[in-house]
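Progress report, Aim 2. The chain analyzed during this reporting quarter is listed below.
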Amino acid sequence: MSEQDIINEIKRGNINIYSKLVDMYKNMIFSLAYKFTNDYDEAQDLSQEIFIKIFNNLSKFRFESSPKTWIYKIATNMCIDYKKKQKKQSLNFNEDLMEERELDADGKINSPEEIVISDEKQREVHRIIHKLPDIYKTVIIMYHFNESSYKEISKILDISEKTVETRLYRARRLLRNEIFKKGLGGETGWDVDRL
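Predicted structure tokens for the chain:
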């Protein structure tokens, strides 16, 4: 069953099928929410709020864009709104929790010390991304972590593809500068352009 079929079924009143749409997008939505919240529990809560908003707005969706673009736009806007609220409340963010990796890029098993060092560097990069201004953080997350194209980002954010390119360039430059300041650059796996 396609996304369009699922959405049309929900519009006809078959709300039980909404879980299929959630399953299609839960990883993408959670990943986006996590990059904005930097906290697992907050990301879970924000993801649920996003899915509630998507459900409540499905009747307005007219297939003028792809479901993915429409869903991602709602999610991105809600994440940006969340961040603005957090800044106003001056909340402290919890440290990023990263899944441990046991193999390096060549498939060799790393020692526990190497895993700890690698994970700490990864957490530091995510902390740096988390602190970027929203206009730069958003494009970094969308392009590098959610693998959205310039065209998709352009549609979701209502900006030109050239603006996407410019923001991504500036975001990478800011990120690269911070990474080098922290002494994290110059090692395998830490090329900002590839993340």
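The two ends are 34 Å apart (CA to CA). The CA atoms of residues 35 and 130 lie 7 Å apart. These observations will guide the mutagenesis work planned for the next reporting period.
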